[in-house]
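Researcher: Re-running this chain for the archive, since the previous output was lost when a drive failed. Same request as before.
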Amino acid sequence: MAHLLSTSCTLKISSGCKPHSRLTQDSLAFPASCSFQTSKLPFKSIGFPGERFRTNSTLRETTIPDSGFRFNASSSEDSKAEKVMVIGGDGYCGWATALHLSKKGYEVAIVDSLVRRLFDQQLGIDSLTPISSIHNRLRRWKALTGKDIELYTGDICDFEFLSEAFKSFEPDAVVHFGEQRSAPYSMIDRSRAVFTQNNNVIGTLNVLFAIKEFRDHCHLVKLGTMGEYGTPNIDIEEGYITITHNGRTDTLPYPKQASSFYHLSKVHDSNNIAFTCKAWGIRATDLNQGVVYGVKTEETDMHDELCNRLDYDGVFGTALNRFCIQAAVGHPLTVYGKGGQTRGYLDIRDTVQCVELAIANPGRRGEFRVFNQFTEQFSVNELAALVTKAGNNLGLDVQTISVPNPRVEAEEHYYNAKHTKLIELGLQPHLLSDSLLDSLLNFAIKYKDRVDRKQIMPSVSWKGIGVKPRTVTA
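Model: Regenerated structure tokens:
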């Protein structure tokens, strides 16, 4: 293990610091001999509890040989797509995706500010699973597979940092997970609402400008959300809808009915991406993802140090994951309100598969594609019933309670969303089954001693959001 902790790597500093050729485990995060400059942006950093991760530094972990991988491009000038930048590659979906693409033969770089780990510290919460540092994760991946993943540590809202990362790595595709992804987090207080919109909208704008300036052929694969659509009383199409009004017909972007400041940031992203595709000829795919469940992929299951995070708290935890952990520790399943809220769901293994398919089948220059990324639809009550049945089969006494809904949403509604485009590209879904629920429940049981019961109940109210910053947990 000692040889892994002294892996040679290169630290590129754009603020005038000398590069380090060798870094120890303790010095990898912030080398003591280098001072980090604050980026010069035309707006002030917003005030949310804790310091924003904003530096001009670029941390690179070794160099990867040419993989020789090609995907099907739409023109000869764009025939190569070997290098993929995964923004937000330390997060739940991003980490699993980065490993999956690396194993598939892509040359991968992770860009991440590591701010998601800071959120846990601020709110006093933690992943159910113990998470290794990003540096130990990457060393372990190299030791197991012989494959390198480069790491650029910094904030994409700092355009100078992002520019240096683009010019250094020269991506052919960018997978953009690098956003604050929790609706409850965006509804805690004013500062976190502002942070969410600033981080998500400005960060995505910076990515679009970086593509335009430095890699204009680059394909943007952006993680959107099914939450952009809301719960309309008509079928949800994939991004666009053809309507006839006063005798004239047109195909228009599907109407958006976002339900939190987080979801609104995603709507703004979609509008900005659509405009830049039309104005600059950028190619982009918006993956409007449903609710993700599960923790294991083929790659993250290779070693404990590669294990993905699993959130169960009321801020970052999603319904099925939360229910399985509640069942494992004997806490009643918390159904919000009437429980008729219906959404699209998919396995984390299908998330990485969908991203790979989008990269391997890029659209034309100037095309803004929208894929609805989910495999099945369930109501909250249906999920609770499935977890109850699976838990009882394992000898667990699973109870369900209805708690006041902290959100402002319809609790009984029509919901029928189309999701055919990824299937047509070859998606082979992992559908929710008894065996998968058993596996997830057993995983939750394995780590149940790490559960903090104070984090289970919802603590963020949509109507209670205020100006004053507040601490969510005791």
